[in-house]
Amino acid sequence: MIMTRWRQVNHCFPSMTRQSPILLVLLCLCMVPPGESCSKEPGDFVLVDYPQLLERKQQWQQQDPKNRPEYDAMMQKADRVLGLEPLSVIHQSITPPSGDERDYYSIAPYWWPDPEKEDGLPWIRRDGRVNPDTQGANSDHDVTLQFFNRVNSLGMAAFYSDDTQYSDAAIELLKAWCIDPTTRMNPHLEYGQGVPGLYDGRCFGIIEWLKIEQLLIPIHLMWANEMIPEPTYREVVKWMEDYLHWLQFSEKGKQEGTRLNNHGTWYDVQVATILLFLGKNDEARELLESVKTKRIATQIEPDGRQPHELARTKSFTYSKMNLSAFMRLAKLGDKVGVDLLGYETPDGRSIRKAEAFLNSYGKGKKKWEYPQL
């Protein structure tokens, strides 16, 4: 595989990594035997433009004055989390309905105790109004975002600096979250965005993992730099495979995939990102191709409006959020030869139209005509 070839070449010619990343990639390709796939194993670089990252790494390591402030800011961010204890869903103060502390659990943010009921149950929905009691230590959402952010900060610092203290810290985080049997999160979101008195969990909780790319890219890069022991890496990959299987085949996962608003769009982003991380490029390509008819044709009007988002109490916020998901899908599509940004339905629906519609209200050009708390 191309990853294996890269590691072999990097071991034999370490200076080539810094001096000629393009040549290095070409040499790796030439070393792949006829008929051997270059993108079937986890670890192959599809999520990132690897030669570009190597070039940036070379500039930063040569202390190019134009790039040092960005590099220094990145390292300072990593230093702030370097000595912190590993994170786990078991450290939160709540207990999931299953009774297993290793299950992810969160409460739907727009739901509140019913003031007309003595016990407040079942909770009632107030769209757009966040209940503070669903945040912080009462939810695994916040600790998950911290986990993503810390691994990202440490992993990127390790890649760009070649300093193993950062990768070692990132590995401890990954072990606690994905491997250690006493602290690892069970690879599903069955109890995401539950509603007291109504639901133990709902499919809508899946959107709380929309930033999973922050986790997967640094894992890729640390693996490329031989900063993760292979057994640890394989365990993390297995966890991602199990989580992906839940996303694709569980009842809640399949439900989320049918949503015709930002939940469905971000579900596709998450599944496509994990597929590419795992080297399942054909599956990712098929999913991204389906975005044309499944998402663009059903969620965007010919004039660029997104009606499912406009129906919300924060219509502008959710319109932007859904457009961000479409833009992310377009970038993922570019990696596997699917042009989503240039696609338009026969009646004129497209991501570009959605972008133009929102831009027409930017910088006070027009007054937003829809609900926005």
TrEMBL record:
UniProt GO MF annotations: lyase activity
Short name of one Pfam family: Alginate_lyase
Gene3D superfamilies tied to this protein: Chondroitin AC/alginate lyase (1.50.10.100)
Domain of life of the source: Bacteria
InterPro entries reported in the protein's UniProt record: Alginate_lyase_dom, Chondroitin_lyas
Domain Alginate lyase: 93-368
The keyword Signal appears for this protein: yes
Protein name from the UniProt record: Alginate lyase
